């Protein structure tokens, strides 16, 4: 029977996990929105597969409490869309884009397909502009550039959420009056974490230039598939329609991949590595590749996805595939975290692949790249000396080796460690980097030009 805006099918063949199989289906499209009507109300879903008169529908709110009899499906005839306008700024939504801050729905300027449209590669502009996060280790050594995708690889229980909230509060494009906004999507997080993000942005006044999407751990896992897509749709509208520079923070992408695995298992697909679907790479790329800049458009979308590596294993499929798609990674180290260092970034495992294009004269400072290289070199040598000291004892070390030990400690205590609310300028960050390497004799500074040594080196 036909109803307005779609075709109603009452025959539900079976319910399996988060999926509903509808029988006797004609002219239904992949990804089409479906309203599952029950005696208790409506639930939304989308078509995953069509064939032989059957449609497999993924139900966003889950299938708990549904029965084959008394449930009907209405195919709406369009894909899922997100209403967008400038009014979304300062608002808090659930994982499906419905307001949860007690305010009415924002008035929509337009409705956009949450799957986005692919960017024309020829129209992409190379990321070049520096974003100041106020976190020394990121600004100084793993610089975030406008239009980049730079993930944070963490482990369970570490301080990645505190770092994410700090970046969301402090991030700014320096040296311009361009508008800046943060879109924050929490995927499958605990209630206490979601409240921390909301409170953190509210108290600092950053909420008025932010949009929050909160999908909690007790929300249906299937909702997690939609949350990052809804958030990125809003980010693209703010960037390309309103000309705002947007930083998108997605935490935690591991929960997203787990939800994907759940659907894949329910569809009885052949599993890939560790039970994740074989198309995990392709699926993650449909999220990460929605970052960038477009020629002729003023705004940009920069992404910082956060994922917790199961068992701190960087070779696990989720961090492994994420590393292939994104331009670098910030890896948090368990050893530093145990020592109470915040943020506990293991810089020897981290890199920002397009850092070199966003720093230097006219962007940050002429000596930025070289002093950063010198810090990498010194810290890496310090780690070697620490290992050696563990074998031969400090008494067996040379004078220069002892200097490197000092540098390693100073790097962690003075440069790496900073307060949760401490917002350092790029000048302060670079000064700290010079302060650390100034513990070494001048002849050890092999990565820096003499003119910079004369200008910035201060013997300690």
TrEMBL record:
SUPFAM superfamilies linked: N-terminal domain of alpha and beta subunits of F1 ATP synthase, P-loop containing nucleoside triphosphate hydrolases
Gene3D superfamilies documented for this protein: 3.40.50.12240
Keyword terms: ATP synthesis, Cell membrane, Hydrogen ion transport, Ion transport, Membrane, Transport
InterPro entries cross-referenced by the UniProt entry: ATP-synt_VA_C, ATPase_a/bsu_AS, ATPase_F1/V1/A1_a/bsu_N, ATPase_F1/V1/A1_a/bsu_N_sf, ATPase_F1/V1/A1_a/bsu_nucl-bd, P-loop_NTPase, V-ATPase_su_B/beta
Residue ranges constituting the ATP synthase A/B type C-terminal domain according to the UniProt record: 357-457
Subcellular location, record wording: Cell membrane
GO terms under cellular component: plasma membrane
Segments forming domain ATPase F1/V1/A1 complex alpha/beta subunit N-terminal: 12-77
Annotated GO MF terms: ATP binding; proton-transporting ATP synthase activity, rotational mechanism; proton-transporting ATPase activity, rotational mechanism
GO biological process, any: proton motive force-driven plasma membrane ATP synthesis
Annotated ranges, domain ATPase F1/V1/A1 complex alpha/beta subunit nucleotide-binding: 134-352
Protein task: Component of the A-type ATP synthase that produces ATP from ADP in the presence of a proton gradient across the membrane. The B chain is a regulatory subunit.
Oligomeric and partner information: Has multiple subunits with at least A(3), B(3), C, D, E, F, H, I and proteolipid K(x).
Similarity comment: Belongs to the ATPase alpha/beta chains family.
Protein name, entry field: A-type ATP synthase subunit B
Name of the coding gene: atpB
